[in-house]
Write a structure and sequence with these properties.
Helices cover 76% and strands 0% of the residues. The chain contains 3 helices and no strands. The protein has helices spanning 2-30, 39-62, 72-92. The protein is elongated, with a radius of gyration of 17 Å.
């Protein structure tokens, strides 16, 4: 069971970094620091959009943007961290073997 928790934590950590990368890249695109017409930037932006948008979409429907600031990635990161801590607490008291 420890291997499952380790794998789950690793996947959550990687996904959180992808969310952060997506947010940073969206800011860089919005401020014209990077150009999505560049093939590499366009591919990275498309990948990050496809991987992060599905779980963010329902949050965006419920929570509106505050003054143009999208806080849905922050909410999703908090939810993922909560889920990770909850699973650790649920399975830490159990003995498997």
């Amino acid at each position: 069971m420890r291997a499952f928790l380790w794998l789950f934590d690793t996947v959550i950590t990687i996904y959180i970094w992808l969310l952060i990368g997506s947010a940073v890249l969206s800011w860089l695109i919005a401020f014209n620091v990077v150009n999505t017409r560049h093939p590499v930037v366009g591919q990275i932006a498309e990948f990050l959009y496809r991987i992060t948008e599905p779980p963010l979409r329902p949050i965006r429907r419920v929570v509106p943007a505050f003054g143009g600031i999208d806080i849905s990635p922050i909410i999703l990161i908090i939810l993922l961290q909560f889920l990770s801590i909850l699973l650790h607490e649920l399975f830490s008291g159990m003995s498997f073997g």
